[in-house]
């Protein structure tokens, strides 16, 4: 009898372990109070970051149904313009439960909207501007409406997630990196590329991120 019960016990243990993993993966035991507070802080991010002045975008640029599908309980999309050189970039900030926010990187969101990823995503470290400490980990790639159409729209996108005050951009499934987190922020910064896409360090997005990231830290993680 004891020998026969071993497979049953092993199967039960496997089911329990799988349930625990799935619970962490999907954030089943989330902290609703922490999530509500995190969502509220999305609107605390100032519109100005250094020389960059932002403008809140709405329909038709913003599709509430698309954000809801991505699991965003709080979000904004802003068009930032550098007041010195006129360069522009669009920033998108979202917050929600980690299990939903982590599964919609640009490879999913933008390809579903008709874009192809031109090159594999690469890691990129954004350093804060003069007088500001810290750095943030992003991934970046170029997306195009058509790889063969030279007149198609092309975007340089930087993206990262944050659950504890540290911006991280894992190469694998972000759900595992942020498992168990009560909430998760996701940030995209996008620039429409005209002509050949240069190296990422020369993209206007980097200039915006170097001043925006410190403002995000203050607003999203005040403690």
Task: Describe this structure as you would to a colleague.
With 223 residues, the chain is an alpha+beta fold. It has two domains: 1-30; 31-220, no CATH class. 33% of the residues lie in helices and 28% in strands. The protein has helices at 2-26, 32-41, 64-69, 98-101, 106-112, 174-177, 204-220, and strands spanning 48-49, 52-56, 74-82, 88-96, 116-117, 122-127, 135-144, 154-162, 167-168, 184-192. Strands 1, 2, 3, 4, 5, 6, 7, 8, 9 and 10 form a ten-stranded antiparallel beta sheet that branches. It is globular and about 45 Å long. The N and C termini lie far apart (57 Å). The relative contact order is 0.17.
- Compute the number of strand runs: 10
Oligomer: single chain
Order of helices and strands: HHEEHEEHHEEEEEHEH
Q: Report how far apart the termini are.
A: 57 Å
Quote the beta fraction. 25-35%
In terms of structural class, how would the helical and strand content be classed?
Answer: alpha+beta
- Counted up, domains total 2
Backbone shape: globular
Query: Please, how many helices?
Result: 7
Give the C-alpha Rg: 20 Å
Low-confidence stretches: 6-26
Largest sheet: 10 strands, antiparallel
Averaged pLDDT, please? Answer: 85
Percent of residues in helices: 25-40%
Highlighted features:
223 residues; globular; alpha+beta
List the helices and strands and how they pair.
Elements: H1 2-26, H2 32-41, E1 48-49, E2 52-56, H3 64-69, E3 74-82, E4 88-96, H4 98-101, H5 106-112, E5 116-117, E6 122-127, E7 135-144, E8 154-162, E9 167-168, H6 174-177, E10 184-192, H7 204-220
Antiparallel strand pairs: 1-2, 2-3, 3-4, 4-10, 5-7, 6-7, 7-8, 8-9, 8-10
């Amino acid at each position: 009898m004891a020998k026969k019960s071993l497979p049953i016990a092993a199967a039960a243990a496997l089911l329990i372990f799988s349930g625990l993993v799935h619970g962490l993966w999907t954030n089943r035991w989330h902290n609703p109070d922490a999530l509500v507070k995190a969502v509220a802080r999305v609107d605390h991010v100032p519109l100005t970051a250094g020389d960059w002045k932002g403008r809140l975008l709405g329909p038709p640029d913003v599709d509430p149904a698309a954000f809801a599908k991505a699991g965003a309980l709080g979000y904004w999309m802003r068009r930032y313009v550098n007041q010195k050189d006129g360069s522009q970039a669009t920033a998108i900030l979202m917050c929600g439960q980690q299990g939903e926010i982590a599964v919609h990187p640009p490879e999913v969101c933008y390809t579903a909207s008709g874009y192809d990823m031109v090159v594999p995503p690469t890691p990129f470290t954004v350093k804060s501007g003069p007088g500001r400490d810290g750095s943030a980990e992003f991934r970046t790639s170029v997306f195009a409406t058509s790889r063969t159409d030279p007149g198609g729209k092309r975007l340089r996108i930087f993206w990262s997630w944050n659950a504890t005050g540290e911006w991280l951009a894992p190469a694998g499934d972000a759900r595992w990196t942020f498992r168990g987190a009560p909430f998760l922020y996701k940030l995209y910064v996008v620039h429409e590329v005209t002509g050949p896409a240069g190296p990422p360090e020369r993209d206007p997005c980097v200039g915006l991120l170097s001043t925006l990231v410190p403002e995000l830290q203050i607003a999203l993680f005040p403690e």
